[in-house]
């Protein structure tokens, strides 16, 4: 019997290849542009060199003595520029001078003190009429209220007299540490240091008594100024800051102490 031939069909399998997904052109360009490794950066670029701050040479006692000796020779008896008639009017003038010029205060108080030069007269004048006298001064409404209140307190607590201690003066409405120092110095001859904006600037700029606050400068100046100069020291420094060591354009060319001053930006 003949064998029947049965053809066997070979299973044909098609090799499928996985096509890679197309990379967007922008991404491709970005990858091509991306460096293989981090760019080298110089140490100078990472950590720039900074100059060390210069430290001013400390003042010597002899130099400080020389500074105030020069001030004394030029102006032996300096006077405060606030006009007043007695300790009470001085106290009022200083309270009114906060954030105001001495010239502006003087202009207002010349007529005021003719009618109210004692606490009782100030109370009799009254707050409303007082405002009319001082309305050209900044913050005059608040200041008028404080002057009437401190006048009343002087009568009730101090027999109508200006007290002679810092704590007592500071207890009066509108009076702070600077006010107390001015009154104690000018009215009673105490060796106090009143630090206003001018003294604060001079103390820091010259290096005599650098400090972040007026109290820092006050204590620093009291520590280094010889006792023989303390009575007039704050007036010399105020006048120096007001007329020579100006805030914006200091007049270094006419400064009495320009050869000793530690300010690195002085023009001489």
UniProtKB/TrEMBL annotation:
**Reaction catalysed?**
2'-deoxyribonucleotide-(2'-deoxyribose 5'-phosphate)-2'-deoxyribonucleotide-DNA = a 3'-end 2'-deoxyribonucleotide-(2,3-dehydro-2,3-deoxyribose 5'-phosphate)-DNA + a 5'-end 5'-phospho-2'-deoxyribonucleoside-DNA + H(+)
As to how many cofactors bind and how, the note says: Binds 1 [4Fe-4S] cluster.
Q: Name one GO molecular function term.
A: endonuclease activity
Cofactors that this protein relies on: [4Fe-4S] cluster
- Biased composition regions of type Basic residues, renumbered to the chain: 46-55
Gene3D superfamilies cross-referenced by the UniProt entry: Helix-hairpin-Helix base-excision DNA repair enzymes (C-terminal), Hypothetical protein, domain 2
Q: Known SUPFAM superfamilies for this protein? A: DNA-glycosylase
The record's region (Disordered) falls at 19-56
Q: For the HhH-GPD domain, which residue ranges apply?
A: 96-243
| PANTHER family in the record | A/G-SPECIFIC ADENINE GLYCOSYLASE/ENDONUCLEASE III (PTHR10359), ENDONUCLEASE III (PTHR10359:SF18)
Q: What does this protein do?
A: DNA repair enzyme that has both DNA N-glycosylase activity and AP-lyase activity. The DNA N-glycosylase activity releases various damaged pyrimidines from DNA by cleaving the N-glycosidic bond, leaving an AP (apurinic/apyrimidinic) site. The AP-lyase activity cleaves the phosphodiester bond 3' to the AP site by a beta-elimination, leaving a 3'-terminal unsaturated sugar and a product with a terminal 5'-phosphate.
- Which family is annotated? Belongs to the Nth/MutY family.
Query: What is the protein's name according to its record?
Result: Endonuclease III
């Amino acid at each position: 019997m003949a064998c029947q031939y049965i053809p066997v069909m070979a299973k044909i399998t098609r090799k499928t290849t996985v096509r890679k997904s197309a990379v967007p052109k922008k991404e491709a360009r970005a990858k091509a542009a991306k460096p293989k490794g981090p760019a080298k950066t110089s140490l100078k670029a990472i950590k720039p060199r900074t100059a060390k701050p210069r430290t001013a040479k400390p003042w010597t006692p002899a130099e400080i003595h020389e500074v105030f000796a020069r001030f004394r020779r030029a102006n032996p008896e300096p006077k405060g520029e606030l006009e007043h008639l007695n300790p009470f009017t001085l106290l009022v003038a200083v309270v009114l001078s906060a954030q105001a010029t001495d010239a502006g205060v003087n202009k207002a108080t010349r007529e005021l003190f003719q009618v109210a030069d004692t606490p009782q007269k100030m109370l009799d004048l009254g707050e409303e009429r007082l405002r009319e006298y001082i309305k050209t001064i900044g913050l005059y409404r608040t200041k008028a209220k404080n002057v009437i209140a401190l006048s009343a307190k002087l009568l009730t607590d101090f027999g109508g007299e200006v007290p002679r201690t810092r704590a007592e003066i500071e207890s009066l409405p509108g009076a702070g540490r600077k006010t107390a120092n001015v009154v104690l110095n000018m009215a009673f001859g105490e060796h106090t240091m009143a630090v206003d904006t001018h003294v604060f600037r001079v103390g820091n700029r010259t290096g005599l008594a650098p400090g972040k606050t007026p109290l820092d400068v006050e204590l620093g100046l009291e520590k280094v100024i010889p006792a023989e100069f303390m009575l007039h020291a704050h007036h010399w420094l105020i006048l120096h800051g007001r007329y020579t060591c100006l805030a914006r354009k200091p007049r270094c060319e006419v400064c009495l102490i320009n050869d000793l001053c530690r300010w690195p930006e002085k023009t001489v």
